[in-house]
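Query structure, 140 tokens:
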């Protein structure tokens, strides 16, 4: 099974409120999950990381419950170069809450163990659907 994941965040520095979104589709471009919500974050990198962490948690949880098969080919797309790079290297990111980083790295290890995962940076224009959802979450 091939899964395509797009994630994004929209950060408002004055209020520290972010809208995060995750969109997961299968190889036929059929929607599996579209989720967005408002969260408090220290900075835009943390917001982007929270969005990706939500996607990773969703996949890992569904595979643990046998609702999704293991050994999927997962393509993860985001428009934050910093988050894509730390994901590829499974490294920590400065300025991000330590508990979020632990959760992210642990979830990432499980995801990579059970699947073939590819992280790719894409421009905002190519991440438009996730961007729209993240912005819409700010107005909720």
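Result returned for the query:
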């Amino acid at each position: 099974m091939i899964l395509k994941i797009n994630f994004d965040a929209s950060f408002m520095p004055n209020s520290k409120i972010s809208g995060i979104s995750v969109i997961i589709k299968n190889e036929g471009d059929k929607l599996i999950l579209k989720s967005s919500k408002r969260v408090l974050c220290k900075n835009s990198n943390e917001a982007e990381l929270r969005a990706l962490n939500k996607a990773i948690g969703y996949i890992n949880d569904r595979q643990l419950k046998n609702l999704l098969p293991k050994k999927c080919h997962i393509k993860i797309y985001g428009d934050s170069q910093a988050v894509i790079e730390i994901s590829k290297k499974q490294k920590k990111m400065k300025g991000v809450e330590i508990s979020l980083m632990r959760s992210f790295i642990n979830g990432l290890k499980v995801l990579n163990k059970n699947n073939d995962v590819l992280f790719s940076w894409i421009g905002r224009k190519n991440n438009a659907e996730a961007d729209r959802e993240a912005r819409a979450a700010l107005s909720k």
